[in-house]
Design a protein that fits this description.
Strand content: 15-25%
Order of helices and strands: HEHEHEHEEEEHEHHHEEEEEEE
Largest sheet: 6 strands, mixed
Number of strands: 15
Strand order of the largest sheet: 1-2-3-4-6-5
Radius of gyration: 22 Å
Structural class: alpha/beta
Shape: globular
Distance between the termini: 61 Å
Number of helices: 8
């Protein structure tokens, strides 16, 4: 029943949501949750989901969440055997760790047991032992991207957090946790109720001129951001911005006060809102000329 529910009802609804919103998704696969139930995961529907994810420009990832009675190292060994059985060569770049990043993960990372992982996604939780910045290096090879919005909890504070991060950092991501739907505790956890909740969240999750990416795609931008060394100088109406390296994946938010961009070279730009511009570097040096806004001020009651 669970398999047919996921494939025939839940997935069509999810794919429709992503198509309508224009967002991209990283879908974390869980071969097994209860490793002590004596049942092995099935492989038949795996190819179906990979194809469906590809059609909506999404990607597959792996989740490190698991039930009781097994360690993270044991789970990884069991899961690795499953992926070897599938044998399709898919490269999983993103891992989801759940609430916080477990201490066990450090040993796995040092032992190179996370295979092809490039980035970790996690939720901070209400009682997290630590709190990394929204984007950071977890290790020399792994970045960490914190979940900023819970799609099933559409609140004013979450909306404010999302808009603040987009304004200050140009980064935000949204989590849709399907656990309550797949393992419901009450009638409130039924798919139709959950669908209505996340549909409203996605409709209000505006990118406001920013790009929609999967976690592996945003990982490239995160690395560029964390490694970027830049300098800028303004002389009269001209701003010169230098990155010191080839940075065609570098973006900056430029805020002005009643000024408009009149000429730009070495970069491209997009106006996000009044006095706010998204600058995309096209080389290691950009020249931006500003002028007073030609729009006349108007007052009314």
């Amino acid at each position: 029943r669970s398999s047919s529910l996921q494939q025939d009802i839940i997935w069509p609804g999810m794919s429709a949501l992503f198509r309508r919103s224009g967002l991209k998704g990283t879908f974390f696969l869980m071969p097994q949750y209860d490793y002590g139930d004596g049942q092995e995961p099935e492989t038949e529907s795996y190819a179906f989901y990979l194809q469906q994810m590809k059609e909506i420009d999404g990607e597959a990832g792996k989740t490190l969440e698991h039930g009781e009675g097994i360690t993270l190292e044991e789970k990884q060994k069991r899961d690795s055997a499953f992926w070897e059985k599938v044998e399709n060569g898919y490269q999983f770049g993103a891992y989801y760790t759940g609430e916080g990043i477990p201490k066990e993960l450090q040993r796995l990372a040092e032992a190179d047991a996370l295979e092809d992982a490039v980035t970790l996604a996690y939720t901070a939780g209400e009682e997290a032992d630590f709190l990394l910045p929204p984007v950071a290096y977890y290790s020399d090879d792994l970045t960490a991207q914190r979940i900023t919005v819970n799609g099933a909890q559409d609140t004013y504070s979450q909306s404010l957090r999302h808009k603040s991060l987009m304004t200050a950092l140009g980064y935000s991501n949204l989590l849709i946790d399907m656990q309550s739907v797949l393992w419901p505790d009450s009638e409130e956890d039924r798919w139709e109720n959950f669908y209505e909740e996340i549909s409203g969240s996605l409709n209000r999750y505006s990118l406001q001129g920013f790009s929609a990416t999967t976690l592996s795609e945003s990982d490239e931008r995160v690395r560029c951001f964390l490694n970027l060394s830049y300098a800028w100088e303004r002389t009269e109406d001209v701003i010169v911005l230098e990155t010191g390296q080839e940075a065609d994946k570098a973006w900056f938010l430029l805020r002005t006060h009643g000024e408009e961009i009149t000429e730009i070279s070495g970069a491209d730009y997009q106006k996000l809102e009044e006095d706010a511009f998204l600058i995309q570097m096209l080389s290691d040096r950009a020249r931006i000329e500003l002028g007073k806004s030609k729009e006349e001020l108007s007052f009314g009651l």
